[in-house]
Design goal:
The chain contains 7 helices and 14 strands. By secondary structure, the chain is an alpha/beta fold. The chain has one domain: 4-Layer Sandwich (Metallo-beta-lactamase, Chain A), CATH 3.60.15.10. The strands form 3 sheets. A 6-stranded mixed beta sheet has the order 1-2-3-6-7-8, covered by helices on one side. The protein has a 6-stranded mixed beta sheet with strand order 9-10-11-12-13-14. Strands 4-5 form a two-stranded antiparallel ribbon. Helix 4 crosses helix 6. The longest helix is centred in the last third of the chain and has 13 residues. It binds fe (ii) ion. Fe (ii) ion binds next to loops. One of its GO terms (biological process) is glutathione metabolic process.
Length: 293
């Protein structure tokens, strides 16, 4: 697949950091118009209290309104397991289409079973407005964008490229953070390695924007790097580390990781494009499957 890269377009990017989940949300503005996209928004969730709130999403909404931007796309790089998406909340306030990778259907099939969802839970991705496949092109205003299929962390992961900026989701972390885990159901360390190679095949000067950073070694959080920097300095894949070595390392590392605190609510909400499921009474309600994950 040859991707339609155009390094001459520089979108304006505003970054929002959610400290409880170490997630970055981006507002990406087309330089030629007022159109923008939101990438990986966050809903605030106090799991112990079962309490949802909207401060993080409101910050993004307030920014878009204050700048007079028109929201065209609300993109999820994948079905996140560590935070709940605010996509429908943002869409209700500002419009825009919610998009995710077409392999969302695989995630819905897998977790539809884990959560014993009935037949009313559609597993065809129809909760989303757009399903992307490898190489799909779309526009934010005048800015040409495209999606790269990057499975490995999850089966539905996509990297989105907008001008000279790529939003890598959970493929790569900052060079000193390495790569994302590949042990969730449907994840695969070898596939993740191959997907990372696709990202590293983009031009050296391509700006890469992370979905997460955990400030390894106590450094302040960081979210932006380049393909060139990842190629030379990434501690998991830089300087030509082999596929075999990566798989071995990644598999051993993943076996020692705890599940993310919010994985159970996140999956139930995010596989529904950010909608909270409802019980027979019509009330928002989440399940905890026992010994299934
Ligand atoms: Fe993730």
């Amino acid at each position: 697949m040859t991707y339609p890269v155009n390094m001459t377009v520089t979108p304006r990017i505003e970054t929002f950091f959610d400290a409880p989940t170490n997630t970055f949300t981006y507002v990406v503005k087309d330089p030629a118009s007022d159109a923008c996209a939101v990438i990986d928004s966050v809903l605030d969730f106090d799991y112990a209290a079962g309490h949802l709130s909207f401060e993080s999403a409101d910050r993004v909404i307030d920014y878009i309104r204050a700048e007079g931007l028109k929201l065209e796309w609300i993109i999820e790089t994948h079905v996140h397991a560590d935070h709940l998406s605010a996509a429908p909340y943002i869409q209700e306030k500002l419009g825009g289409k919610i998009g995710v990778g077409e392999k969302i259907t695989v995630v819905q099939e897998t977790f539809g079973k884990v959560f014993n969802e009935g037949t009313e839970f559609e597993r065809d991705g129809s909760q989303f407005d757009a399903l992307f496949k490898d190489g799909d092109r779309y526009k934010v205003g005048e800015m040409a964008c495209f999606a790269i299929y990057t499975p490995g962390h999850t089966p539905a992961c996509m990297v989105h490229v907008m001008g000279n900026a790529a939003f890598v989701g959970d493929t790569l972390f900052m060079p000193d953070g390495g790569s994302a885990r590949a042990d969730f159901p449907g994840g695969d360390a070898g596939e993740l390695y191959d997907s990372i190679q696709k990202v590293l095949s983009l031009p050296d000067e391509m700006r890469l924007f992370m979905c997460h950073d955990y400030g390894p070694g106590g450094r302040p959080v960081a979210w932006e790097t380049t393909v060139a920097e990842q190629k030379t300095k990434n501690i998991h894949v830089g300087e030509g580390k082999s596929r075999e070595a990566f798989i071995k390392f990644r598999t051993e590392r993943d076996a020692a990781l705890d599940m993310p605190k919010l994985i159970i609510p996140s999956l139930q909400v995010n596989m529904r494009a950010g909608e909270v499921p409802r019980d027979a009474e019509g009330d928002p309600m989440l399940k905890v499957p026992v010994n299934k994950l």
